[in-house]
Design a protein that fits this description.
Elements: H1 5-25, E1 33-36, E2 42-45, H2 56-85, H3 89-112, H4 119-138, H5 142-147, H6 155-181, H7 198-219, H8 223-252, H9 259-285
Antiparallel strand pairs: 1-2
Helix pairs in contact: 1-2, 1-4, 2-3, 2-8, 3-4, 3-8, 6-7, 6-8, 6-9, 7-8, 8-9
Length: about 290
């Protein structure tokens, strides 16, 4: 293990723990209130705790994400880091996947959450996650990694899923972005009080290409596909859990979505997460330690 990871990973754990606990339990605010956005729309705000200046939709989602981080993502980070330090090469690859999640979470909070007292914590989490991912990826020898893959590895199934996840994510976000663009002065309703859509842009610019490249590489048996596939599958798994957590908290604060949203968007993320779990298990079952 690269020596820089010996302090970067614990730093990520500490920063993520602070952010999750503060997001879930920090008091403040008088409850939901209505705010007029720059575009003249009345938007209901979360009005509670750390996310009191986020919209009700986003504030509840952030709390749901914090719960998943605290209960699932952080324990996985600690587990894989411990196993990787004991010499497990498979745990090192799994650790890369969880680091992807914290990079994604740090970037999302830094660039999309309404400014709050933990802004520097989010920035530090984003920075630590970014360089931890870069350093971890450089520790792998692609040819050696490819030789550890067993004959039972589901190349075609994993590749098809990654291609579907990549293009599916792009199509979901485009369905929310393109219609307002075609209307003069229009903006997606989901934007609320914000000035842009970070998640839509980041997923379209980074996650979709990464998933598609991984899928194509797996079909061609290119060793790069193995290095990219595992972390993306783990990220998809955790995002599926995040969507469940977000939906639960949003329901608790009184948000009710149309049936097509539950089926077409929320359901899609959850189903992709379920498929990702099965493919992740299959991936590591067919990856030898040496």
């Amino acid at each position: 293990m690269n020596k820089n990871l010996l302090w970067l990973v614990p730093l990520i754990a500490i920063l993520a723990l602070i952010g999750a606990l503060a997001g879930l339990f920090l008091p403040g605010g008088d409850g939901p209130f209505t705010f007029t956005s720059l575009r003249g729309h009345d938007v209901e705000m979360f009005g509670r705790g750390l996310y009191q200046y986020d919209t009700l939709l986003v504030g509840a989602a952030l709390r749901g994400t914090d719960a998943v981080t605290l209960l699932i993502s952080l324990p996985l980070l600690v587990l894989f880091f411990w196993k990787a330090r004991r010499g497990s090469q498979n745990a090192m690859l799994a650790l890369l996947g969880v680091l992807f999640y914290f990079l994604y979470k740090g970037a999302s909070l830094t660039f999309s959450a309404a400014f709050n007292p933990l802004f520097l914590v989010y920035t530090a989490l984003f920075s630590a996650g970014l360089f931890a991912v870069i350093i971890t990826m450089t520790t792998f020898d692609l040819e050696s990694l490819a030789k550890r893959v067993q004959p039972g590895f589901p190349h075609r199934g994993a590749a098809i899923f990654l291609l579907f996840a990549g293009f599916g994510t792009l199509l979901i976000w485009l369905s929310e972005v393109i219609p307002p663009i075609l209307v003069a002065g229009g903006a997606p309703e989901i934007m609320g009080t914000y000035t842009t859509l970070f998640t839509h842009g980041f997923d379209s610019a980074v996650i979709t290409p990464a998933a598609v490249i991984a899928g194509v590489c797996l079909l061609r048996r290119n060793p790069l596909g193995y290095l990219l596939a595992a972390p993306i599958l783990i990220l998809c798994t955790l995002i599926g859990a995040v969507v469940i957590g977000q939906t639960v908290v949003q329901t608790l604060v009184g948000l009710v979505f149309p049936p097509q949203i539950y089926i077409g968007m929320i359901g899609t993320w959850i189903v992709m997460g379920a498929f990702a779990i099965g493919l992740t298990v299959s991936f590591f079952r067919n990856l030898s330690e040496s």
